[in-house]
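Subject: Interface between my chains keeps coming out wrong

I've been trying for a while to get a sensible model of this assembly. When I model each chain on its own everything looks fine, but I need the whole thing in one frame so I can look at the contacts. Pasting all components below, labels as-is. Any help appreciated, I'm running out of ideas.
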Amino acid sequence: GNSVTQMEGPVTLSEEAFLTINCTYTATGYPSLFWYVQYPGEGLQLLLKATKADDKGSNKGFEATYRKETTSFHLEKGSVQVSDSAVYFCALRRGGANSKLTFGKGITLSVRP
Amino acid sequence: DVKVTQSSRYLVKRTGEKVFLECVQDMDHENMFWYRQDPGLGLRLIYFSYDVKMKEKGDIPEGYSVSREKKERFSLILESASTNQTSMYLCASSLGSTVYEQYFGPGTRLTVT
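Reply #2:
Try treating it as a single job with all components included. I did that and got this:
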């Protein structure tokens, strides 16, 4: 079946540090891939997405590249800010009709000033 | 902007009570979803609906039911609340079968005592 594996957290970084959050997936075919972010006290919101192999999604300084050969969709940011402190979820769209998503367990990022 | 609202941010109920969680979206989305979010487990899909009066079980439907009488409203029902249903409940909606972005509400933190 479909599954998403995220690296274990939490992650604590200093402001302006480089961020990598690993995400790998198991799926048949070519699923669309997503990163969602949940800021404290809020629901999830879409951060970026990629719909086919080698696509790069980007938003707010974050990037992730859909790597079919390694079944990965790692999230990166060159210089994190305190305001990036949040929970980050990797997700994939399941096959078939409708738009059900399979989510990873999420990882908490804390950025220190 | 798409808005998904949930009836309560915090709810405390007693074991055995019948609990209703309400979700409303204002963008005429076809699909609506209920998830629960637990530390270390990420988001797990309880039920979803792809049309009025239509529903399908997600990954963990036991102990829950849903109702969708109007397109904009999707209700989650706990027939007899139990302590293991203490969790954060998130509602989401999406436009249709080819648009996969899900828009989330702020969540309801339910405590069952």
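Reply #3:
Confirming on my end. Chain A has a mean pLDDT of 92.
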